[in-house]
Write a structure and sequence with these properties.
By secondary structure, the protein is of the alpha+beta class. Helix content is about 25%, strand content about 35%. The protein has a 4-stranded mixed sheet, sandwiched between helices. Strands 5-4-9 form a 3-stranded antiparallel sheet. A two-stranded antiparallel ribbon has the order 1-2. The termini are far apart. The relative contact order is 0.22.
């Protein structure tokens, strides 16, 4: 194992099952949570911007069970039992893209999306945002195939021209961020 690219998640890790009010109702393996139409569990997504307002996107590793090689936001994952969403967001942001930065909670929402005949995401997702410099990004190749900062206008154009290249949660979150949260994030 390459120490720069550690294994940071497994199909057997226990996710936090929740109801629609985000109340804990149990635990189940990551794999089981994502089979068929999915089982509602807690998750988070992080959007990172640079000082110019460009947004960091990653192309998910080909090793991903769901949406491999799709473009998505800087980082997304699941809190572990006993871990807050904020603690998990900081942990995973560092594990996936090497960043340590302040994060601002934006909102949470529930979504369900099926990926081919493979499985589904069914998540109550907390959305976070932060600011970081490109020079600080160090990706874990087990999680990230490719990355770059996109100017917002270019991202909007690519989403319109090729929406099938992006994860469903990223598209939903980006629309909400564009409509309601950019001024607060970028100052």
């Amino acid at each position: 194992m390459n120490s720069a690219n550690p294994i940071v998640s497994s199909d057997s890790e226990q996710l936090i099952l929740v109801n629609e009010q985000d109340e804990f109702v149990g635990n189940l393996s990551k794999r089981e949570c994502h089979l068929d139409d999915g089982i509602l569990h807690r998750a988070f997504s992080i959007f990172i911007f640079n000082r110019d307002g460009d947004v960091l996107l990653q192309r998910r590793s080909e090793q991903k069970f769901l949406w491999p090689m799709y473009w998505s936001n800087a980082c997304c994952s699941h809190p572990r039992e006993g871990e807050t969403s904020e603690e998990a967001a900081h942990r995973r942001l560092h594990q996936e893209v090497g960043l340590k930065t302040d994060l601002t909670y934006l909102y949470k929402f529930i979504y369900q999306a099926n990926y081919k005949e493979v499985g589904s995401e069914y998540e109550l997702c907390w959305v976070w945002a932060g600011i970081a410099d490109e020079a600080d990004v160090v990706v874990n190749a087990n999680e990230v195939a490719e990355w770059r900062f996109f100017p917002r206008q270019e991202l909007d154009e690519r989403l319109e021209q090729s929406p099938e290249d992006f994860t469903p949660w990223m598209k939903m979150e980006w629309q909400e961020i564009n409509e309601k949260h950019l001024p607060a994030i970028l100052g």
